[in-house]
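INTERNAL AUDIT FORM
Audit reference: QA-55
Scope: verify that the stored structure record matches its stored sequence.
Auditor: D.O.
Record contents follow.
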Amino acid sequence: MARIEPTTIENAPESTKGTLEGIKAQLGKVPNLLGTLGKSPAALNSYVNQKEALSTGVLSDQVGESLALAIANFSQCGYCVSAHNVIGKMVGLSEEERELNRNGKSNDPKTQAAIDFARAVVGGRGFISDNDFAKAHEHLSESEVLEVIAITTFNLFTNYMNHAIETENDFPEVELVASAAV
């Protein structure tokens, strides 16, 4: 049971109603996490503004979703791994690639470098070894390295929010890969 129940658009604070309506128009529903964040203008705006900023990046939606799947498993967030499995399919990731991502792997060398770097960020709590940084920089530009850090911390925001509030999963459930945990 969720510690904080999601709001409906009708019951949301006036300052979040429009945002929740936009989310529903885009996704066809307001996912439970976003409905819950909708009870707090600061929390929902933090999510929406970060998501919007990341959409201006140089990394593709596919790389972003591959990272989201891997990071969800690194931090063992069942809600996010289920949500990003659906979104990953929507942006064109094959079932094979999504399964690899959930295991911290990728068929693409650049995506693999991004996943490995994200694992280092999560595992080191942001402290990165020179070796991890150099390995990432073999496949990623400086801009892309910074973007991987931004994507990682954004995903940790949603992962930790789900852990803390015990969001009820409203996506087709996907098993976490325990061996991928950091």
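Auditor finding: record pair retrieved intact. The CA atoms of residues 38 and 44 lie 5 Å apart.
Action required: none
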